[in-house]
Request: fold
Amino acid sequence: MNWTDERVETLKKLWAEGLSASQIAAQLGGVSRNAVIGKVHRLKLSSRGRATSQRTRQKKAPQTGTTTTRRPRNTRPMTTTVGATALQAQFDEEPVARTYLQPVGNVVLPISRKLALTQLTETTCKWPNGDPLSDDFNFCGNEAGDAGPYCGYHSRLAYQPASERRRSR
Reply:
């Protein structure tokens, strides 16, 4: 799509009236919103035309003698910005302090039996210790019970309630 002088003038006029890039693209036809934004930046039209509602006219009413404020037709009030303000941080609230959960009581770590994979049974804890590629890799090996593959301590680590996980984030 080529930007003819006529289309550029139409673009300038619509941009000054405060229409959005999507609205301008729809009126021009055959051009995307991004093409309109790109052309606006190349033409350095980034500051919108000042809305005429800022400079309102005051007229005297014919019979009552009171003044009224009128806005010219086909204009909308627009805020104007200078520069890139989209990334400027504006914080109205104080930052929230994070709270960290502390263990309720003393935590007792079970002494690992350090079993190899071939030594595991259905009733031993299958919690891995260390790096599987190293020579000293082993499994916890404590009594797991019927509840699952881990001992009581490792079950509490592996199966945390969803509400606890959400709170710790």
